[in-house]
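Incident log, support desk, overnight shift.

02:14 A customer reports that sequence design results differ from what the structure should imply. Their input is reproduced verbatim below. On-call engineer (initials T.W.) acknowledged and began investigating.
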């Protein structure tokens, strides 16, 4: 009971700002809710409309492709930087603060900065020109826009996951690694046989939150591409925004939101089944 009282404020906030809106969105997806507040019950018509909407299918494919690019990249960067910080001898706090700094930068500011970096006359193409390459239209080519956006999101957000993994590394007893070193295990063997298995709970947590974050990416796309070029970066969450706040079709927007919720739930459950074995 004492523990419940301590978490009660957060539980109340969760119910008010997460659980209730989710139920409201589920109910709204069964209506043709208008911006004027008028609505009528339409049943599953909005869901049937989704199946006949080629833009929805294209946005779903784009979203899954973006997630497939972003999640492995951010996991590698977060784990790599956490390992380097854990092995650092001097100025650990300084390096940790520098690497975490992009995380506290606004997505809008990060998008504006990286849009300039990706421009034809921007920093990146300027560096490529020095080695007789480019210019490259990172945000103008359909084949490059998703990886370019993923790089921005990784740069912006890896700091949080890095700290989670660093905390996990700090919790691994040094005696385990020292015993393996005495037994002749090299660095890769120690990492694979000791560090990675013991870090698995933290990795699973980071994988889940990064996957959910990837499905919800909006700010970077809105600032940098607006869903372009030729809808190559038009994701589900961007389609939800357009339907709700551009076309004011709130019932259909809520339907997109419920589909996104279902996709994230299914992916998270699959990840849990595949990766959470033996973590307890």
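02:41 Re-run completed on a clean worker. Output:
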């Amino acid at each position: 009971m004492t523990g419940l009282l301590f978490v009660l404020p957060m539980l109340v906030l969760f119910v008010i700002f997460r659980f209730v809106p989710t139920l409201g969105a589920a109910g709204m997806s069964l209506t043709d809710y208008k911006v004027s507040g008028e609505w009528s019950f339409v049943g599953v018509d909005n869901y049937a409309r989704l199946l006949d909407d080629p833009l929805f299918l294209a946005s779903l494919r784009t979203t899954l492709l973006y997630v497939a690019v972003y999640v492995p990249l951010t996991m590698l960067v977060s784990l790599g930087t956490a390992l380097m910080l854990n092995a650092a001898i001097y100025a650990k706090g300084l390096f940790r603060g520098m690497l975490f700094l992009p995380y506290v930068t606004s997505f809008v500011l990060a998008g504006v900065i990286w849009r300039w970096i990706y421009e034809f006359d921007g920093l990146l193409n300027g560096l490529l020109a020095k080695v007789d390459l480019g210019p490259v239209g990172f945000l103008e080519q359909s084949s490059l826009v998703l990886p370019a956006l993923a790089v921005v999101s990784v740069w912006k957000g890896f700091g949080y996951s890095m700290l989670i993994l660093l905390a996990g590394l700090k919790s691994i007893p040094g005696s385990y690694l020292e015993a393996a070193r005495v037994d002749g295990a090299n660095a890769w063997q120690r990492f694979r046989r000791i560090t990675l298995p013991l870090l698995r709970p933290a990795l699973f947590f980071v994988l889940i939150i990064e996957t959910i974050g990837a499905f919800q990416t909006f700010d970077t796309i809105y600032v940098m591409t607006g869903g372009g070029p030729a809808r190559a970066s038009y994701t589900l969450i961007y389609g939800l925004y357009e339907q709700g706040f551009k076309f004011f079709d709130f019932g259909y927007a809520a339907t997109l939101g419920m589909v996104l919720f279902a996709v994230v739930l299914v992916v998270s459950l699959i990840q849990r089944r595949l990766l959470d074995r033996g973590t307890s």
